[in-house]
From TrEMBL:
Domain Dyp-type peroxidase C-terminal: 143-307
Natural source organism: Flexivirga alba
Keywords tagged on the record: Iron, Metal-binding, Oxidoreductase, Peroxidase
Superkingdom of source: Bacteria
Similarity section: Belongs to the DyP-type peroxidase family.
Alphabetical list of PANTHER family matching this protein: DEFERROCHELATASE/PEROXIDASE (PTHR30521), DYP-TYPE PEROXIDASE FAMILY PROTEIN (PTHR30521:SF0)
Cofactor(s) listed in the protein's UniProt record: heme b
Name listed for the protein in its UniProt record: Dyp-type peroxidase
Pfam family, one: Dyp_perox_C
Gene Ontology terms for molecular function: peroxidase activity
Length: 314
């Protein structure tokens, strides 16, 4: 029997880069806007090549995600099994807000210059067919730390494990090679965070600050650390995701944040993590990281296989 080849994913399971940008767009109303947007999305690979060839020594990658609202309009196909709009999660104290987003461009590079050049060409090609609703440029902070000064990304899998955690397989054959992605922009109250003792901060994250060692999990009814709330286990074992969080900042405006991006083979896994963080496990013991970090955006996309994107035009 001949082996059926799985479609090639976009650059989902890549190592952390030095720079990144998260460009979120909505597609404007009308058939013209849809046609233009479809054609630009389909030709993303050509734009990527234009940029790559001019700086061959630098890493550059671009992942395109499509949101539920425009899936049918843009692709003319039934949506991936689990794809739905990001649903607001209201905890007793904190809310994971849902904000608009039809297209996500997750850009990663060693050099922010390449990202800016790509975005300029991309937005020129889209013209008036889209509106930019958010555009965040992230940078790599010391020792891969976030702006709360903890090493971020340690529990991520790499290599074949990362593919297994993030890439859809036989459970949705039409969308094999794709990945669900959730983004949230968090703003930190750094003054308040920095006034906490190191021990208090470590208890909130669940790891030591200096050397990144995991702390023991709290008991069932106790306040749990961030890393415990985000560990999802059931009879099938642990369900992992791939995070590529980036710090971002505009110090002159007092703006310091973490752009959360999580790729997953199953959307429900990220949804479960968010529910445990915002509602608490058990309720109302929410993730204390939220007392110092406010989610100001929240969107869900599907990043289909490379071929699916290229075929959109035909
Ligand atoms: C772990 C930071 C939001 C999922 C961690 C760790 C840090 C961190 C420092 C421990 C080191 C590591 O394993 O990477 C943050 C910050 C956030 C944020 C600063 C935003 C303010 C989120 C969100 C999710 C999430 C929204 C999921 C919906 C995870 C997971 C782990 C983790 C799955 C690994 C847990 C394990 O040890 O298995 N995060 N995080 N994080 N975080 Fe977050």
């Amino acid at each position: 029997m001949s082996q059926v080849e799985s479609p090639q994913p976009q650059d989902v399971a890549k190592p952390l880069s030095q720079s990144a940008a998260f460009l979120v767009l909505t597609i404007n109303d009308g058939e013209d806007a849809t046609r233009t947007a479809r054609s630009v999305v389909a030709s993303t690979d050509d734009l990527v090549k234009n940029v790559r060839i001019r700086s061959a020594e630098n890493f550059f990658s671009c992942n395109v995600g499509i949101g539920h609202r425009v899936w049918d309009r843009l692709t003319g196909k039934p949506a991936p099994k689990e794809l739905k709009p990001f649903a607001e999660i209201k905890g007793a104290k904190h809310t994971a807000v849902a904000t608009p987003g039809d297209l996500l461009f997750h850009l990663r590079a060693d050099n922010l210059g390449l990202i800016v050049e790509f975005e300029r060409m991309l937005l020129e090609a889209f013209g008036t067919s889209v509106s930019a609703v958010d555009d965040v440029a992230g940078f790599r902070y010391f020792d891969t730390r976030d702006l709360l000064e903890f090493v971020d990304g340690t529990a991520n899998a790499s290599g074949p494990d990362a593919e297994h955690d993030t890439i859809v397989g036989a459970e949705d054959p039409a969308y094999a090679g794709g990945s669900y992605v959730v983004t949230q922009k968090y703003l930190h109250d750094l003054g308040d965070w920095r006034s906490q003792s190191t021990e208090a901060q470590e208890a909130i994250i669940g790891r030591t600050k200096f050397d990144n060692v995991e702390l023991p999990d709290a008991g069932d009814d106790q306040q749990k650390a961030h890393k415990t709330l985000c560990t999802i286990e059931d009879e099938d074992g642990e369900h992992d995701i791939l995070r590529d969080n980036m710090p971002f900042a505009i110090p002159g405006k007092g703006e310091y944040g973490t752009y959360f991006i999580g790729y997953s083979r199953h959307l429900w896994v990220i949804e479960k993590m968010l529910e445990r963080m915002f509602v608490g496990a058990p309720p109302p013991l929410h993730d204390r990281i939220l007392d110092f970090s406010t989610a100001v955006t929240g969107s869900t996309f599907f990043v289909p296989s490379r071929q699916f994107i290229t075929d959109l035009e035909t």
